[in-house]
Amino acid sequence: MSKSVTRIPLPSPALGTSRAVTVHRYGQPGARPKAYIQAGLHADELPGMLAAHHLLRRLDALDAAGAIRGEIVVVPAANPIGLSQSVLEYHVGRFALDGRGNFNRHYPDLAPIVAPRIAGQLTGDAERDVRLVRAALLAALAEQQPADETAALRKTLLGLSIDADVVLDLHCDNRAPVHVYLGTPLWPDAEDLAREFQAEVVLLAEESGDNPFDEANSSPWWVLPRLLDDGRTLPPACLAATIELRGQADVDDETAGADADALIRFLQRRGVVAGDPGPLPEARCEVTPLAGNEMLRAPVAGIVTYSQPLGARLRRGDHVADIVDPTAADPAQARMPVHAGVDGVLWSQGLHRLVRPGDIVAKIAGAEPIKGRGAILLTT
């Protein structure tokens, strides 16, 4: 057996307190392929953490059977800071309550640091060049000096993943089917991942804005070739994806176990784990650009009610929801309609039904980029 479990301490944010990141490792350090899987970076998104629990049980059995071929690193609860945050009995796990922002944004952008250090050293030998870039990324990250606990968490997680062949960040939406975020250069190589999870939406972008965790791992591999004269042959050597495991309320052992099985089959297909994954399921969707994802916002305050189910294929102008004002003097005038602005698939609805003006109430995956969308393609 090759498993080890370690705890990486984070700097204490206050006297008398301490937190740590728990890391499960399988296989021999440095073995290839290396897969990194984490859950709960948004600490109030529980489906991934339960799936990671089931994944660890399966990996323990595979490890005992000698079936680990590469190196696997699993962080089942990636955000001990967010896990500790509660306000008036409500868990708050997406944002740092000390004002440090979204836990899945603002990871170190390492490509501009690495580029001048390796300029002129790439040879066109893909295997050698990938090793060189990975070593340079690790060295650049090691030099980072985090100023606070949240920044230290970002550095810790990226330090575990930046040299991996595969990085899977498990999240969930409010109410949604399985969907996947990927860097555009990773498609269609990552099609097996989307099909294994039977994703109903796959959203592609080279840059989604604010450097989330998955892009901090994958984007150096397509940014460096643009920064280096000798980088044209550098392959996209890190398949990093954010897998959204349905909605926040989709937390049960049967579903989480099925997700763990899908992870194992994907690792088998990628040669990280021995075994036959069986036939690859048929695709359930066409890929769409993240820039074509319409976020429908509440025009007024009130109670949102939906007229379309998740997965509905909509046309521009279709009625999607109403915002109801129960305090209206005339009930006949109490409903404000919300309509689709693009053709596409309705893939996300809000979990909380009391909304304020500007709150996102639904998302539609459109096939064409939306004009004027801007550089920030994700929610805050």
Write the layout of secondary structure elements.
Blueprint: E1 4-10, E2 19-26, E3 34-39, H1 47-64, E4 71-75, H2 80-83, E5 86-87, E6 90-91, E7 95-96, E8 101-102, H3 111-118, H4 126-142, H5 149-161, E9 166-173, E10 179-182, H6 191-196, E11 201-204, H7 213-218, H8 220-227, E12 239-247, H9 253-269, E13 287-289, E14 293-297, E15 302-306, E16 313-314, E17 319-324, E18 335-339, E19 344-349, E20 354-355, E21 360-366
Parallel strand pairs: 3-4, 3-9, 9-12, 10-11, 11-13
Antiparallel strand pairs: 1-2, 2-4, 5-6, 7-8, 10-12, 14-21, 15-17, 15-20, 16-19, 17-18, 19-21
Helix pairs in contact: 1-9, 3-4, 3-8
Descriptive key words:
Aminopeptidase; metal ion binding; single chain; Succinylglutamate desuccinylase/Aspartoacylase catalytic domain-containing protein; OB fold (Dihydrolipoamide Acetyltransferase, E2P); AstE_AspA_cat; nine-stranded mixed sheet; hydrolase activity, acting on ester bonds; four-stranded antiparallel sheet; metal-binding; globular; alpha+beta
